[in-house]
Protein backbone atom coordinates (compact mmCIF):
# COMPACT_ATOMS: atom_id res chain seq x y z
CA UNK A 1 0.00 0.00 0.00
CA UNK A 2 1.34 3.48 -0.84
CA UNK A 3 1.92 6.11 1.85
CA UNK A 4 -1.12 8.04 0.63
CA UNK A 5 -3.35 4.95 0.74
CA UNK A 6 -2.11 4.15 4.24
CA UNK A 7 -2.96 7.66 5.35
CA UNK A 8 -6.49 7.42 3.92
CA UNK A 9 -7.02 4.03 5.56
CA UNK A 10 -5.76 5.36 8.90
CA UNK A 11 -8.14 8.33 8.69
CA UNK A 12 -11.07 6.07 7.78
CA UNK A 13 -10.31 3.88 10.79
CA UNK A 14 -10.06 6.92 13.02
CA UNK A 15 -13.42 8.17 11.77
CA UNK A 16 -15.07 4.78 12.36
CA UNK A 17 -13.61 4.54 15.87
CA UNK A 18 -14.82 8.06 16.65
CA UNK A 19 -18.27 7.33 15.24
CA UNK A 20 -18.57 4.27 17.50
CA UNK A 21 -17.50 6.21 20.60
CA UNK A 22 -19.86 9.02 19.77
CA UNK A 23 -22.81 6.68 19.22
CA UNK A 24 -22.06 5.10 22.59
CA UNK A 25 -22.07 8.52 24.22
CA UNK A 26 -25.36 9.50 22.59
CA UNK A 27 -26.96 6.16 23.48
CA UNK A 28 -25.51 5.37 26.92
CA UNK A 29 -24.16 8.56 28.42
CA UNK A 30 -26.21 11.58 27.34
CA UNK A 31 -29.53 10.25 28.69
CA UNK A 32 -27.92 9.80 32.12
CA UNK A 33 -26.28 13.24 32.38
CA UNK A 34 -27.62 15.71 34.95
CA UNK A 35 -29.49 18.61 33.33
CA UNK A 36 -30.23 22.17 34.35
CA UNK A 37 -31.87 25.17 32.72
CA UNK A 38 -29.95 26.26 29.63
CA UNK A 39 -28.50 29.76 29.32
CA UNK A 40 -28.59 30.34 25.59
CA UNK A 41 -28.13 27.49 23.10
CA UNK A 42 -30.78 25.05 24.27
CA UNK A 43 -33.33 24.55 27.01
CA UNK A 44 -30.88 22.40 28.91
CA UNK A 45 -27.27 22.50 29.88
CA UNK A 46 -25.62 19.11 30.55
CA UNK A 47 -23.12 18.13 33.22
CA UNK A 48 -20.31 16.02 31.84
CA UNK A 49 -17.35 14.99 34.01
CA UNK A 50 -18.05 17.75 36.51
CA UNK A 51 -18.52 20.63 34.02
CA UNK A 52 -21.58 22.09 32.30
CA UNK A 53 -21.71 21.96 28.51
CA UNK A 54 -24.31 24.00 26.62
CA UNK A 55 -25.29 21.53 23.92
CA UNK A 56 -24.84 17.92 22.88
CA UNK A 57 -22.92 19.23 19.86
CA UNK A 58 -20.29 20.68 22.19
CA UNK A 59 -20.06 17.32 23.90
CA UNK A 60 -19.60 15.78 20.45
CA UNK A 61 -16.86 18.33 19.76
CA UNK A 62 -15.10 17.59 23.04
CA UNK A 63 -15.12 13.86 22.35
CA UNK A 64 -13.75 14.54 18.87
CA UNK A 65 -11.00 16.67 20.40
CA UNK A 66 -10.13 13.96 22.92
CA UNK A 67 -9.88 11.39 20.14
CA UNK A 68 -8.30 13.23 17.27
CA UNK A 69 -6.26 16.12 18.50
CA UNK A 70 -2.59 15.26 18.02
CA UNK A 71 -0.67 18.26 19.30
CA UNK A 72 2.50 19.53 17.72
CA UNK A 73 5.30 21.10 19.77
CA UNK A 74 4.68 24.37 17.93
CA UNK A 75 0.94 24.55 18.71
CA UNK A 76 -0.30 27.46 20.79
CA UNK A 77 -3.66 26.90 22.45
CA UNK A 78 -5.58 29.78 23.96
CA UNK A 79 -7.60 28.25 26.81
CA UNK A 80 -10.34 30.33 28.37
CA UNK A 81 -13.64 30.19 30.11
CA UNK A 82 -16.28 32.05 28.09
CA UNK A 83 -16.27 35.86 28.59
CA UNK A 84 -12.72 36.12 29.88
CA UNK A 85 -11.60 38.04 26.79
CA UNK A 86 -11.07 35.18 24.32
CA UNK A 87 -11.76 37.44 21.33
CA UNK A 88 -9.22 40.00 22.51
CA UNK A 89 -6.50 37.45 23.24
CA UNK A 90 -7.08 35.68 19.92
CA UNK A 91 -6.32 39.00 18.26
CA UNK A 92 -3.30 39.72 20.49
CA UNK A 93 -1.73 36.29 19.97
CA UNK A 94 -2.39 36.27 16.22
CA UNK A 95 -1.02 39.79 15.76
CA UNK A 96 2.06 39.02 17.86
CA UNK A 97 2.78 35.70 16.18
CA UNK A 98 2.32 37.02 12.63
CA UNK A 99 3.74 40.51 13.03
CA UNK A 100 6.43 40.03 10.44
CA UNK A 101 4.08 38.37 7.94
CA UNK A 102 1.44 41.08 7.51
CA UNK A 103 1.45 44.82 6.93
CA UNK A 104 -0.83 46.73 9.25
CA UNK A 105 -2.77 48.22 6.32
CA UNK A 106 -3.80 44.79 5.00
CA UNK A 107 -3.87 42.87 8.25
CA UNK A 108 -6.19 39.81 8.32
CA UNK A 109 -7.62 41.00 11.63
CA UNK A 110 -9.17 43.88 9.68
CA UNK A 111 -10.81 41.61 7.12
CA UNK A 112 -11.43 38.27 8.81
CA UNK A 113 -11.83 39.06 12.51
CA UNK A 114 -10.30 37.21 15.49
CA UNK A 115 -12.57 34.15 15.46
CA UNK A 116 -12.07 33.38 11.79
CA UNK A 117 -8.29 33.33 12.26
CA UNK A 118 -8.13 31.18 15.31
CA UNK A 119 -9.97 27.83 15.09
CA UNK A 120 -12.06 26.83 18.09
CA UNK A 121 -11.17 23.23 18.95
CA UNK A 122 -14.40 22.47 20.79
CA UNK A 123 -16.42 22.72 17.57
CA UNK A 124 -13.66 21.84 15.12
CA UNK A 125 -15.55 18.71 14.17
CA UNK A 126 -18.09 20.93 12.40
CA UNK A 127 -15.54 22.70 10.21
CA UNK A 128 -16.47 20.22 7.50
CA UNK A 129 -19.53 18.19 6.60
CA UNK A 130 -17.84 14.89 7.48
CA UNK A 131 -15.78 13.91 10.52
CA UNK A 132 -13.11 12.52 8.30
CA UNK A 133 -12.62 15.83 6.51
CA UNK A 134 -12.33 17.61 9.85
CA UNK A 135 -9.69 15.12 10.95
CA UNK A 136 -7.75 15.71 7.71
CA UNK A 137 -8.00 19.48 7.90
CA UNK A 138 -6.83 19.45 11.53
CA UNK A 139 -3.76 17.55 10.40
CA UNK A 140 -3.07 19.65 7.35
CA UNK A 141 -3.03 23.09 9.03
CA UNK A 142 0.44 24.62 8.69
CA UNK A 143 2.60 25.12 11.80
CA UNK A 144 2.57 26.99 14.06
CA UNK A 145 -1.10 26.22 14.57
CA UNK A 146 -3.17 28.53 16.75
CA UNK A 147 -6.24 27.11 18.46
CA UNK A 148 -8.64 28.18 21.14
CA UNK A 149 -10.66 26.07 23.55
CA UNK A 150 -13.01 26.45 26.49
CA UNK A 151 -12.43 22.84 27.55
CA UNK A 152 -11.51 22.48 31.26
CA UNK A 153 -7.98 21.24 31.91
CA UNK A 154 -9.17 17.89 33.29
CA UNK A 155 -11.06 17.17 30.04
CA UNK A 156 -8.15 17.79 27.69
CA UNK A 157 -6.65 14.74 26.01
CA UNK A 158 -3.48 13.36 27.65
CA UNK A 159 -1.75 13.96 24.34
CA UNK A 160 -2.08 17.71 25.00
CA UNK A 161 -1.40 17.83 28.75
CA UNK A 162 1.61 15.49 28.74
CA UNK A 163 4.81 17.44 29.36
CA UNK A 164 6.30 15.59 26.38
CA UNK A 165 3.69 16.88 23.91
CA UNK A 166 5.40 20.25 23.73
CA UNK A 167 2.27 22.25 22.81
CA UNK A 168 1.75 25.34 24.93
CA UNK A 169 -1.30 26.95 26.53
CA UNK A 170 -2.11 30.57 27.25
CA UNK A 171 -4.85 30.69 29.89
CA UNK A 172 -6.88 33.82 30.64
CA UNK A 173 -8.54 34.38 33.96
CA UNK A 174 -10.97 37.23 34.76
CA UNK A 175 -12.75 38.39 37.88
CA UNK A 176 -15.90 36.25 38.28
CA UNK A 177 -18.14 39.26 38.98
CA UNK A 178 -17.30 40.74 35.57
CA UNK A 179 -17.56 37.29 33.98
CA UNK A 180 -21.03 36.81 35.40
CA UNK A 181 -22.33 40.17 34.14
CA UNK A 182 -20.69 39.69 30.75
CA UNK A 183 -22.16 36.19 30.42
CA UNK A 184 -25.64 37.30 31.41
CA UNK A 185 -25.70 39.99 28.72
CA UNK A 186 -24.15 37.66 26.16
CA UNK A 187 -26.59 34.83 26.88
CA UNK A 188 -29.64 37.06 26.63
CA UNK A 189 -28.42 38.57 23.34
CA UNK A 190 -27.32 35.28 21.81
CA UNK A 191 -30.00 32.90 23.04
CA UNK A 192 -31.89 30.82 20.52
CA UNK A 193 -35.66 31.28 20.18
CA UNK A 194 -36.46 28.19 22.25
CA UNK A 195 -34.63 29.54 25.30
CA UNK A 196 -36.66 31.92 27.42
CA UNK A 197 -35.01 35.14 28.69
CA UNK A 198 -33.20 34.83 31.98
CA UNK A 199 -33.41 37.43 34.74
CA UNK A 200 -30.19 38.62 36.35
CA UNK A 201 -31.30 37.01 39.62
CA UNK A 202 -32.00 33.61 38.05
CA UNK A 203 -28.69 33.64 36.17
CA UNK A 204 -26.90 34.66 39.36
CA UNK A 205 -28.20 31.67 41.30
CA UNK A 206 -27.14 29.30 38.53
CA UNK A 207 -23.70 30.91 38.21
CA UNK A 208 -23.07 30.73 41.97
CA UNK A 209 -24.03 27.04 41.93
CA UNK A 210 -21.50 26.53 39.15
CA UNK A 211 -24.18 25.97 36.51
CA UNK A 212 -22.93 28.12 33.64
CA UNK A 213 -21.37 27.30 30.25
CA UNK A 214 -18.14 25.36 30.97
CA UNK A 215 -18.67 26.07 34.69
CA UNK A 216 -18.19 25.91 37.58
CA UNK A 217 -16.08 28.93 36.66
CA UNK A 218 -13.86 28.57 39.75
CA UNK A 219 -13.06 24.93 38.99
CA UNK A 220 -12.18 25.85 35.41
CA UNK A 221 -9.70 28.48 36.61
CA UNK A 222 -8.20 26.27 39.31
CA UNK A 223 -7.56 23.40 36.88
CA UNK A 224 -5.36 25.59 34.69
CA UNK A 225 -3.88 27.51 37.63
CA UNK A 226 -2.59 24.34 39.31
CA UNK A 227 -1.28 23.00 36.02
CA UNK A 228 0.49 26.32 35.34
CA UNK A 229 2.25 26.10 38.72
CA UNK A 230 3.44 22.60 37.88
CA UNK A 231 4.43 23.44 34.31
CA UNK A 232 5.07 27.18 33.94
CA UNK A 233 6.84 26.67 30.63
CA UNK A 234 3.80 24.91 29.23
CA UNK A 235 1.01 27.10 30.56
CA UNK A 236 1.14 30.88 30.73
CA UNK A 237 -1.52 32.04 33.17
CA UNK A 238 -2.62 35.62 32.52
CA UNK A 239 -5.32 37.86 33.94
CA UNK A 240 -7.63 40.05 31.83
CA UNK A 241 -7.23 42.85 34.36
CA UNK A 242 -3.40 42.75 34.16
CA UNK A 243 -3.52 43.01 30.38
CA UNK A 244 -5.88 45.99 30.73
CA UNK A 245 -3.71 47.70 33.36
CA UNK A 246 -0.32 47.16 31.76
CA UNK A 247 -0.66 45.87 28.21
CA UNK A 248 2.95 46.59 27.22
CA UNK A 249 4.40 44.34 29.90
CA UNK A 250 1.90 41.55 29.25
CA UNK A 251 2.13 41.59 25.45
CA UNK A 252 5.91 41.25 25.92
CA UNK A 253 5.35 38.24 28.20
CA UNK A 254 2.98 36.75 25.67
CA UNK A 255 5.50 37.24 22.87
CA UNK A 256 8.29 35.59 24.85
CA UNK A 257 6.08 32.67 25.81
CA UNK A 258 5.00 31.94 22.23
CA UNK A 259 8.63 32.08 21.15
CA UNK A 260 8.45 35.44 19.36
CA UNK A 261 10.12 37.95 21.72
CA UNK A 262 10.33 41.54 20.51
CA UNK A 263 13.78 42.59 19.38
CA UNK A 264 15.33 45.82 20.66
CA UNK A 265 14.69 47.36 17.25
CA UNK A 266 11.02 46.38 17.30
CA UNK A 267 10.71 47.85 20.77
CA UNK A 268 12.27 51.10 19.56
CA UNK A 269 9.94 51.18 16.57
CA UNK A 270 6.86 50.79 18.76
CA UNK A 271 5.85 47.30 17.57
CA UNK A 272 4.34 46.42 20.95
CA UNK A 273 2.19 49.54 21.07
CA UNK A 274 1.09 48.96 17.49
CA UNK A 275 -0.25 45.50 18.35
CA UNK A 276 -2.01 46.85 21.43
CA UNK A 277 -3.69 49.54 19.29
CA UNK A 278 -4.68 47.09 16.57
CA UNK A 279 -6.29 44.76 19.13
CA UNK A 280 -7.87 47.41 21.34
CA UNK A 281 -11.56 47.22 22.13
CA UNK A 282 -12.12 50.56 20.39
CA UNK A 283 -10.44 49.40 17.20
CA UNK A 284 -11.80 45.85 16.97
CA UNK A 285 -15.36 46.67 18.00
CA UNK A 286 -15.61 49.38 15.33
CA UNK A 287 -14.48 47.25 12.42
CA UNK A 288 -17.25 46.34 9.97
CA UNK A 289 -16.09 42.70 10.02
CA UNK A 290 -16.82 42.49 13.76
CA UNK A 291 -20.08 44.43 13.61
CA UNK A 292 -21.98 42.49 10.97
CA UNK A 293 -22.94 38.90 10.42
CA UNK A 294 -22.65 35.85 12.60
CA UNK A 295 -19.86 33.51 13.57
CA UNK A 296 -20.96 29.94 12.85
CA UNK A 297 -19.37 27.40 15.20
CA UNK A 298 -21.58 24.39 14.41
CA UNK A 299 -24.80 23.75 12.48
CA UNK A 300 -26.75 24.82 15.57
CA UNK A 301 -24.42 27.46 17.01
CA UNK A 302 -24.23 30.81 15.21
CA UNK A 303 -23.55 33.94 17.23
CA UNK A 304 -23.74 37.55 16.04
CA UNK A 305 -20.18 38.81 15.87
CA UNK A 306 -21.12 42.07 17.57
CA UNK A 307 -22.14 40.11 20.69
CA UNK A 308 -18.47 39.44 21.45
CA UNK A 309 -17.97 43.15 22.10
CA UNK A 310 -19.86 44.91 24.87
CA UNK A 311 -17.87 47.29 27.09
CA UNK A 312 -14.48 45.68 27.56
CA UNK A 313 -13.97 47.24 30.98
CA UNK A 314 -12.77 46.11 34.38
CA UNK A 315 -15.30 46.45 37.20
CA UNK A 316 -18.51 46.95 35.18
CA UNK A 317 -20.16 44.52 37.63
CA UNK A 318 -20.59 47.50 39.99
CA UNK A 319 -23.34 48.75 37.69
CA UNK A 320 -25.40 45.56 37.97
CA UNK A 321 -24.72 43.59 41.15
CA UNK A 322 -26.09 44.49 44.55
CA UNK A 323 -23.67 44.63 47.46
CA UNK A 324 -25.07 41.32 48.68
CA UNK A 325 -24.51 39.64 45.31
CA UNK A 326 -20.94 40.91 45.14
CA UNK A 327 -20.28 39.61 48.65
CA UNK A 328 -21.67 36.20 47.76
CA UNK A 329 -19.36 35.83 44.73
CA UNK A 330 -16.40 37.07 46.81
CA UNK A 331 -17.20 34.50 49.49
CA UNK A 332 -17.35 31.66 46.95
CA UNK A 333 -14.05 32.87 45.48
CA UNK A 334 -12.41 33.00 48.93
CA UNK A 335 -13.59 29.47 49.71
CA UNK A 336 -12.68 27.98 46.36
CA UNK A 337 -9.29 29.66 45.97
CA UNK A 338 -8.28 29.14 49.59
CA UNK A 339 -4.72 27.81 49.78
CA UNK A 340 -4.22 27.95 46.00
CA UNK A 341 -2.12 31.13 45.99
CA UNK A 342 -4.39 32.61 43.30
CA UNK A 343 -6.23 35.91 43.65
CA UNK A 344 -8.61 37.30 41.04
CA UNK A 345 -7.67 40.58 39.37
CA UNK A 346 -9.56 43.70 40.37
P1 LIG B 1 -17.75 42.62 28.57
O1 LIG B 1 -19.03 41.91 28.35
O2 LIG B 1 -17.41 42.78 30.03
O3 LIG B 1 -17.65 43.90 27.84
P2 LIG B 1 -15.00 36.49 25.15
O4 LIG B 1 -14.27 36.99 23.96
O5 LIG B 1 -14.25 35.50 25.97
O6 LIG B 1 -16.39 36.06 24.79
O7 LIG B 1 -15.16 37.73 26.14
C1 LIG B 1 -15.98 38.82 25.83
C2 LIG B 1 -15.63 39.95 26.77
O8 LIG B 1 -14.37 40.53 26.34
C3 LIG B 1 -16.65 41.07 26.70
O9 LIG B 1 -16.58 41.69 27.99
C4 LIG B 1 -16.06 41.94 25.61
O10 LIG B 1 -16.56 43.25 25.57
C5 LIG B 1 -14.58 41.88 25.99
N1 LIG B 1 -13.70 42.25 24.87
C6 LIG B 1 -13.82 41.95 23.56
N2 LIG B 1 -12.82 42.48 22.86
C7 LIG B 1 -12.04 43.14 23.73
C8 LIG B 1 -10.85 43.92 23.59
N3 LIG B 1 -10.29 44.11 22.40
N4 LIG B 1 -10.31 44.45 24.71
C9 LIG B 1 -10.88 44.25 25.92
N5 LIG B 1 -12.01 43.54 26.11
C10 LIG B 1 -12.59 42.99 25.03
TrEMBL record:
Protein name: Sulfotransferase
Sulfotransferase domain sequence ranges: 73-341
Enzyme class, UniProt record, top EC level: transferase
Coiled coil: 1-28
Record has Transit peptide as a keyword: no
EC number: 2.8.2.-
Family: Belongs to the sulfotransferase 1 family.
InterPro entries: P-loop_NTPase (IPR027417), Sulfotransferase_dom (IPR000863)
Entry keyword set: Coiled coil, Transferase
GO molecular function: sulfotransferase activity
Transferase keyword on record: yes
